[in-house]
């Protein structure tokens, strides 16, 4: 009974963390015996709750427990953040060095460097340097606003104003956009030698923050830059085996393999990137697939960029695209909920694709039920998106792959009998649970099975006093009784 309670409570904690309701998550954690939790991803989640609620000692205990079993980037990053919160400068620095050695190309190193330097009271120019480097790879609303404030602080009013204008344009509305409007106004006053009070600005910021939970619940656009090559490259080279490996997580979808092969063959023949349409799956799956396509096209040298700009169709309906060609050049423009695009917006997209001529690709995204509405824009618009990638409902095979990937990550081998139990469970999930909830269901199943397998393995180790023939035992194996 206790085991079942922990599974239910873990699921509830996960939901609360997703909603950033850490205090409520903490209340649940205090009713759980965490010494019996063996799954590292769950321990990492609980450590995050403790960290966000300033229970630093408890967070550190869990993170060190995780680190004794694995030295992943995630746990090092959490330890760095914990050291920053506790203002342990020396500890943060050597952990940062370890993180960079482990992941030298990870873009999070710039944000971690910024946070460490800010804790140490570094010069504003040092902080600006880190955020400028971060912006080249990942255009994040919060940190670009911080960059705008730093520019204002050193008197670089034109740069600050430009950052604010970009935030207002691309994100459209929200708490940070409203702050950016105030900061932009202050920059304009400073440029015109009109006195403005930073105290007044800070006061307005706090007022807006108090309104956040009542007025704002989403962002309208996120622009995610990565390294660019200004010169378009059209001599792409690849093999079908490379495509199969890169998109292996999507090949279970009907006709997906043929669609991917056909698209890359078309791009190779034309010598330039082509726009396409992604339908089905959930929002996250569509975005992950789109990012994968952008990276593959860049990696195989069909283009010199993999930057992705993301915008909701309703927001695009309000924008004059011709004024933003320079911002969108050398990028993939992802349009969410494309079924609500206006005819005027569709015409603007056609004009922009022609004007930028190979320096942009449009990626339309929509749920499968509304897919038919997307291409109601005339023959030219339909021709632009003649390639469609359809992610139909989550099949038994997809769920099996997801669960087996979790077992593999935890370094457990699945016996034949256990594989049959898993197959049966995935069949039941497919038949009895609606599509959008299937992935969560199979994840909960896999976590429960892993917990059972870990507990059984520990009991067997204890019983045999550590003297084990691993090949002849069921230690680190998932067997039928674990289901």
Structural class given helices, strands, pairing? Answer: alpha/beta
Low-confidence stretches: 210-234
Provide the residue-averaged pLDDT.
81
Q: Radius of gyration from the CA trace? A: 25 Å
Number of helices: 23
- CATH architecture classification of the domain at 240-391: 3-Layer(aba) Sandwich
Strand content: 5-15%
Total E-strand runs: 8
**What quaternary form is this?**
single chain
CATH topology of the domain at 240-391: Rossmann fold
Strand order of the largest sheet: 1-3-4-5-2-6
User: Biggest sheet, in brief?
Assistant: 6 strands, mixed
> Which outline best applies?
globular
Helix content: 55-70%
Please give the CATH class of the domain at 240-391: Alpha Beta
Distance between the termini: 15 Å
Structure report:
This protein is of the alpha/beta class and 483 residues long. Among the domains are: 92 residues, no CATH class; 152 residues, Rossmann fold, CATH 3.40.50.300; 87 residues, no CATH class. The chain contains 23 helices and 8 strands. The strands form 2 sheets. The protein has a 6-stranded mixed sheet, with helices on both faces. The protein has a two-stranded parallel ribbon with strand order 7-8. Strand 4, helix 18 and strand 5 form a beta-alpha-beta unit. Helix 5 runs parallel beside helix 7. The chain starts with a helix and ends in a 5-residue tail after the last strand.
């Amino acid at each position: 009974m206790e085991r079942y309670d922990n599974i239910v409570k873990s699921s509830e904690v996960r939901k609360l963390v997703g909603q950033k309701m850490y205090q409520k998550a903490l209340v649940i954690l205090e009713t759980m015996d965490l010494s019996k939790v063996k799954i590292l991803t769950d321990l990492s989640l609980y450590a995050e709750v403790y960290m966000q609620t300033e229970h630093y000692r408890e967070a550190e205990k869990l993170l060190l427990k995780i680190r004794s079993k694995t030295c992943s980037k995630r746990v090092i990053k959490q330890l760095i953040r914990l050291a920053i919160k506790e203002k342990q400068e020396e500890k943060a620095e050597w952990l940062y060095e370890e993180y960079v050695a482990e992941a030298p190309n990870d873009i999070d190193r710039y944000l971690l460097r910024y946070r460490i330097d800010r804790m140490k009271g570094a010069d504003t120019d040092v902080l600006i340097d880190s955020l400028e480097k971060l912006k080249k790879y990942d255009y994040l609303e919060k940190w670009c606003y911080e960059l705008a404030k730093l520019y204002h602080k050193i008197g670089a009013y034109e740069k600050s104003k430009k950052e604010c204008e970009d935030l207002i344009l691309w994100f459209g509305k929200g708490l940070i956009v409203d702050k950016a409007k105030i900061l932009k106004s202050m920059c304009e006053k400073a440029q015109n030698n009109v006195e403005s009070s930073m105290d007044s600005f800070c006061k307005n910021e706090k007022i807006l923050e108090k309104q956040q939970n009542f007025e704002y619940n989403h962002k309208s656009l996120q622009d995610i830059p990565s390294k660019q090559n200004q010169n378009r490259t059209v001599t792409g080279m690849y093999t079908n085996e490379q495509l199969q490996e890169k998109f292996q997580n999507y090949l279970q979808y009907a006709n997906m393999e043929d669609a991917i092969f056909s698209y890359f063959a078309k791009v190779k023949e034309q010598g330039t990137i082509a726009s396409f349409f992604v339908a089905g799956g959930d929002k996250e799956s569509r975005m992950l697939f789109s990012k994968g396509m952008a990276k593959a096209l860049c990696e195989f040298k069909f283009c010199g960029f993999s930057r992705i700009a993301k915008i909701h169709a309703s927001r695009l309906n309000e924008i004059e695209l011709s004024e933003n060609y320079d911002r969108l050049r050398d990028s993939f423009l992802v349009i969410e909920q494309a079924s609500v695009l206006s005819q005027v917006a569709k015409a603007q997209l056609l004009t922009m694709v022609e004007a930028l001529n190979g320096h942009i690709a449009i990626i339309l995204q929509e749920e499968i039920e509304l897919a038919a509405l997307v291409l109601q824009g005339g023959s030219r618009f339909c021709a632009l998106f003649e390639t469609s990638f359809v992610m139909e409902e989550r099949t038994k095979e997809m769920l099996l792959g997801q669960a087996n990937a979790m077992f593999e990550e935890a370094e457990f081998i699945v016996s034949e009998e256990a594989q049959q139990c898993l197959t049966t469970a995935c069949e039941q999930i497919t038949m009895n649970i609606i599509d959008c909830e299937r992935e969560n269901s199979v994840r909960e199943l896999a976590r429960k099975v892993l917990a059972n397998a870990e507990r059984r393995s520990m009991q067997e180790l204890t019983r045999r006093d550590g003297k084990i023939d691993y090949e002849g035992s069921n230690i680190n194996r998932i067997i039928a009784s674990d289901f």
